[in-house]
Write a structure and sequence with these properties.
three-stranded antiparallel beta sheet, binds 5-S-methyl-1-O-phosphono-5-thio-D-ribulose, 340 residues, alpha/beta, single chain, seven-stranded mixed beta sheet
Length: 340
């Protein structure tokens, strides 16, 4: 199975997702600033995967402070601040950082080696637990996923998590249990996670796949080719409003119009107990250059004004079910006792 990241002795190894699928390159991350850059530029991305590397990032930061004799409260706060500032929307990042903070509160900072060991253990638990959660989400989701055409948006597979993925985990498990599926993948402009990552992962798994441009989903639906939509999530409010990759909301509106079930699959670490509804979800706005072109290729005027939100919020009323490791939840959602 593809592994997005892993701790190797004293550093983090991660696959540079910006180079996929043309090149599979493993980055060796020894410094906190390298990890900050990797998260901001989306060499590693996807809500659960960001949470996992944030855990390892704390280990890296504290380990380096300890080795250089600078382990103090102020420097530790700076490690957390820098990781918190990488990406604002996926709540898994903050959830993982909170777990790491609790370890520091419990162990203290007097014995640096003991602290580093305890932090590594916690980061590896976060990683290992996510693998199990994906399995459970996959099984629960596979039971309700109909056979036939399935549409997905963005990328929610192994590379975005610590296991088989969330929405893609559901698809993968349904396929393995013998359901006959054909997956249509939105290319997912502007950064093309669908075209570059989801299409690639599905092909490696031998699951029938067809890539479409984002604006083709309505035509597919009207032709009766889509039996369900399943997507991942970056942050879910207590009432079920769900932030996911920009364009997810339009897919949900289309699905509703065509009476097609629209499913969200995510671990409970993606549920934010602190917010009542989606209006409180911070939406990341990214560099205009991502819309003017892709990598070195530019097709728009260099100075044309651009709006580039990385996520949108799908209202809970458009979501047929939210599949977490704890069960299949239906509207009206009340995630009072689940999640962070
Ligand atoms: O900007 P990205 O690529 O990090 O956005 C990823 C998504 O929106 C995914 O759908 C979501 O994180 C779920 S990943 C299991």
């Amino acid at each position: 199975m593809l592994e997005a990241s892993r701790w190797e002795h004293d550093h983090i190894d991660l696959i540079d997702q910006t180079l996929l699928p043309q090149q599979v390159k493993v980055l060796h991350i020894y410094k906190l600033e390298e990890l900050e850059e990797a998260i901001k530029t989306m060499r590693i991305r996807g809500a659960p995967a960001i949470g996992i590397v944030a855990g390892y990032g704390v280990v890296l930061g504290i380990q380096n402070l300890f080795i250089s004799g600078r382990l103090n409260r102020e420097a530790i706060d700076e490690v957390f601040r820098r990781l918190s500032d990488t990406r604002p929307t996926a709540v898994n990042l903050f959830w993982a950082l909170n777990r790491m903070k609790k370890v520091i509160d419990t162990v203290g900072i007097q014995d640096g080696q003991r602290l580093v060991d305890a932090l590594l253990q916690e980061a590896q638990s976060i990683h290992g637990e996510d693998k199990d959660l994906c399995e459970r989400i996959g099984k629960l989701g596979a039971e309700i996923l109909p056979e036939g055409g399935i549409l997905t948006h963005c990328h929610s597979g192994a590379l975005a998590t610590g296991g088989i993925g969330t929405a893609l985990g559901v698809i993968r498990t349904a396929h393995q249990t013998g359901k006959s599926l054909h997956v249509y993948v939105d290319e997912t402009r502007p950064l093309l996670q669908g075209a570059r990552l989801t299409a690639w992962e599905l092909m490696q798994l031998g699951i029938p796949v067809t890539l479409i441009c984002d604006n083709m989903a309505a035509s597919l639906m009207t032709q009766g080719k889509i039996n369900a939509v399943v997507v991942g999530a970056d942050r879910i409010a207590r009432n079920g409003d769900t932030a996911n990759k920009i364009g997810t909301y339009s897919v949900a509106v289309l699905a509703n119009h065509h009476h097609i079930p629209f499913f969200v699959a995510a671990p409970s670490s993606t549920i934010d107990q602190n917010i009542s509804d989606g209006s409180h979800i911070p939406i990341e706005e990214r560099n205009p250059s991502e819309v003017r072109g892709f990598k070195e290729i530019t097709w728009a005027p260099n100075e044309v004004p651009v709006w580039n939100p990385a996520f949108d919020v799908t209202p809970a009323s458009l979501i047929s079910a939210i599949i977490t490791e704890s069960g299949v939840h239906r509207f009206p959602y009340n995630f009072q006792n689940l999640g962070v």
